[in-house]
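Lecture 7, part B: from sequences to assemblies.

Below are the input chains for today's worked example.
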Amino acid sequence: MALLIFALQYDFRWGVLVEAPYASWLLQGIQNTLILTSLAWLIAIFLGILFGAMRTAPVRPVRWAGAAYVEFFRNVPLLVWLFFWYFGAPQILPLSAQEWLNRHGAEFWSAVVGLSVYHGARMSEVIRAGIQSIPKTQLEAAVSTGLSVVEAYRSVIIPIALRLIIPPATNESLNLLKNSSLALTIGVAELTFMTRQIESYSARAFEAFTAGTVIYLILCLGIAAVMGQVERYCRIPGLIARVGRAEH
Amino acid sequence: MSFDWGVIVNNWQFVIFQGLLGFGAFGGGTLRLAIPAIVLGFMLGVIIGMGRLARRPWVHYPAAIYIEFFRGVPLVMVIFWFWFLIPQITGQRLPEYTVALTAFVMFEAAYLGEIVRAGIQAVSRGQIDAAVSTGLSHFQMMRHVILPQAIRNMIPALVTQFIVLFKDTSLASIIGMMDLTKAAATVSQREIRPFEMYLFIAVVYWICTYSMSALSRRLEARLAGAAGTVA
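Predicted structure of the full complex, as structure tokens:
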């Protein structure tokens, strides 16, 4: 009822979104979200492959190191990690390094580190599940052709695993995109930050948050659609085995 | 840079009792938010997951749209919706705790709804046929036959999602609710000891989430054993 009264009485001004400076703020926000997400994504994929492979390695200490990384980072909220990397971690650097960081976008780089280390841990669980779904005989066959274990992982196991995990990895990548919104708490001017800023300057809460929400929805549904095509293209003929969703 | 771990010794009571448990002048509290959010979110999730499976289009489509909408939006955005719009609609500000709880229940219900749907779909078709043939109504069938089996299927995914929710409650600190994260931020601003304080609550969060996942592994093992005796 209150909602209906609100909808009838509220003076919608969608034009605010295309006015200066709000339109450019919105674009700036989209751009920063995409840059932050892609950079963190690349590092997270790299960490994910590295530690995911380590967790399946035939050497016990290597497996333990992989497990320690994953269990430590993914069991603590991302927000706490962001605060840790932004406020806490520079404390152990020398003062000159801290000053250098503050002049060169410390918020942005803390957000990149925080997002990629956290999502690298989650991504490595996806990649581990992919590797473990490949029959052990594949590795044995690869090693019997004269490859070392590392070579077999690099040219046989990981390429197959990456093709298998496209659906859960897409899911996880979208989580990264959505989680990049937390960077607003340490002052990165990404999309949610800009939405918030438009709201506080123009006092048009409804329009601003609608714009932000719709942009996130378009980005998520768009990426999901593209990855659905990629999955079809990369499907391994004859293999139906699908890897389950990522654990937390 | 030297560390001063004494800051934890001096402030742990505030962080644990006020931040984690919510006993104190500020209200809030991570557990006091997480537990009702899990219970209410699961109840709404069951309704939405069952709605998604309904045959009637006017039940099916709203549930599907609800799930797709909330899964495509960051949680911070949902929290901001409630935080900034409720005052505009109703003309009065709600407490941070209420806003956070509402946002969490609505948001997590979408994820939990998907889990419920998958769990129900994993129950074999023959169970439905058998239930209908004994003369149960649709509601009775769901209540006594399908849901009890579905919930067993869902337990691993549910616990995983509960852990995610528990970690997500840290976002309530963004609108100023006094939870574990906010308590640590408050202390670290006063004492200028962010490294020690954030590492400390990282460990506290870690102990909570790790014990939840250890509990779920034991539960799974026990249920697998129980299922084995039935079969």
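Note for the exam: The interface with chain B takes residues 2-3, 6, 10, 71-72, 75-81, 83-84, 87-89, 91-93, 178-179, 181-182, 184-185, 192, 195-196, 199, 205-206, 209, 212-213, 216-217, 220-221, 245, 247-248 of chain A (CB under 8 Å). Keep this in mind when comparing with the next example.
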